[in-house]
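Researcher: I'm comparing several assemblies side by side, and this is the next one on my list. It has 512 residues spread over two chains. Same procedure as the others: predict the full complex and return the structure.
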Amino acid sequence: MKVFGIFYKPGLKSIVDEFVQKLKKKNAHIVFLTSNEKEIEDHTDLTLVIGGDGTVLKAAKYVSSPIIGFKGGRLGFLSSYTIDEFDKFLEHLESNSFYEDKRQFFEVLELNSLYLNDIVAIREPHQKMLDINVKFKDGSFYFHADGIIISTPTGSTAYSLSLGGPILLPNVKAYVLTPIAPQFLASRSVILPDDEKISVETSFPSHLIVDGHDFGKFNKFSVRKSEKSITILRPLDYDFSKSIKEKMGYGKNYFK
Amino acid sequence: MKVFGIFYKPGLKSIVDEFVQKLKKKNAHIVFLTSNEKEIEDHTDLTLVIGGDGTVLKAAKYVSSPIIGFKGGRLGFLSSYTIDEFDKFLEHLESNSFYEDKRQFFEVLELNSLYLNDIVAIREPHQKMLDINVKFKDGSFYFHADGIIISTPTGSTAYSLSLGGPILLPNVKAYVLTPIAPQFLASRSVILPDDEKISVETSFPSHLIVDGHDFGKFNKFSVRKSEKSITILRPLDYDFSKSIKEKMGYGKNYFK
C-alpha cells in the first residue's frame, strides 16, 4: 500500500504535516491532503483520517478502499490508533499486518444518503411529542415519543446507548430501533434483521439527523441496508469488546 | 396433514377430549395423546400442544414436524390459537393455510441439552455475587453479578426482557446476553451473532436453568446454535409485533 489520501479535522494540520514527512520517508505517494470532504478522491490504497469518529464517518462515505483513523487522546470506536501511535502504525504498514474490520452502511432512501452510525428523527424542543409509526416486513410498531433512532451495530454504542439501547457486536446483521423519551412503557430497543426495509411516518415533520448531519424536516422516511460497506484497518490485536471495556468499563474486571 | 400427536398440560384432559372428538370427525389419526413428554413420538404430521408456552417448549424438543399451541385465556408467545379458537384452527387445517414461524434451537454443550428460550446461570440467594467471564470468538466480557442470561430471539421476550433486555424479532440471527443484577454499570444487554460459540465461566458453581429446567450447579458451560429448529404453524394473519403490542402494549397506538 503506497498510494495514500489524508483527510483531517481542521486544526490538526501541524500533526498532519509531521505524518506527511514520515510517510514521504517511506516513499508513500499522497494523492490528496485535505480537511474538505469534497476533495476526497477514491483511488487510493488507503485513506488516513486524522480526527475523531465524526471525521472518520465523513471520510468513509467518500471512499471504497480501506480507512485508518488516528485520534488525539483516547481512541474512538472508529479510530484504530492514537495520534501518538503513528510510528507503530508505520511498522504495521511495513509488514502489512492489519485486522480488517468491515462495517456495513445503511441508506435513507428519500435523502439518498448513506449512514454508518444512525438516523435520528426528533421533534424540536418547543414542539409536542410525535406520533411515530414504524413499518417493516413482518409488522409495525407505534410510538408516542420525542423521536426515534434507527441505528446500525456501529451506531449502537453512540446515541442509542445513551437512551438505554443494547450493545451490538459489529458483525451482527441487524438494526436497533430505540425510541427517544417514549410515553407509556414502550422504552425497550427492538432489534430487526438488516435485510428488511424500515419505513417511518411521523404525525408532523421532524428533524432527520443522519450520522450527526441535520437534513431538515420530514414526516416520512425509509431506510435499508446499503450495498456499500467500509473496511477499517485495525492493529492485529484489535478486539471490539476491549474497546467497550476501555471506553465504558462495560463488562470489565475491576478486581484484576 | 392427518396424522396428529397431542401433548397437553396435566389438568386440561377434558378440553383435550373435546378436541379429540372434533379431530376424529375430520378422520384425523391420533398416534399419541399424553401429558408425559417422554411419550411424545416424532412421526406425526403435526403436534398439537394444549397448554402455555412452557408446555410448547417441552414438546418442541421432542418433535421435528410442525407444532401448534393452544392456550387458555390470552395467547402466549409460542401458542398460535386460544383454546376457544379450535374450530377456527380446524378451518385453517381444511385449507392447510398456515404461516410457518421457524424458531432456532441453541444447545448447551456440557448438558447436551437444547433450548429455545434461554439459559440462566444464577447464584443461590444466600451466596455472594458471581464473577462471570463470558468468552466468544472476537472477545470477552466480565461481570460481577447475581448471574447471566444467554437468550435466543424467542427468549428475548421472557426473562431477559424482565431484566431490561431488548426485544429481538424472531428472525434475527443473534444471541442476547443480559446480566442479572450486575455491579458497576455493565447492565446493558449485548447482542452477539448466533454463529459464534459462547463459553461462560463463573467463580463458583451456579445453577444452570435451561428453558426453566434446573440442571444443578456448574462453574463452566458453553452454548452454540443447534442444527435443530422448530416450525410453529400460525394463522396467516400472524404478526409478531402484534403479539408484542397485545401482550405488553409495546409500541401500541393508545390513541386509536
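Model: For your comparison table: The longest strand of chain A covers residues 213-234.
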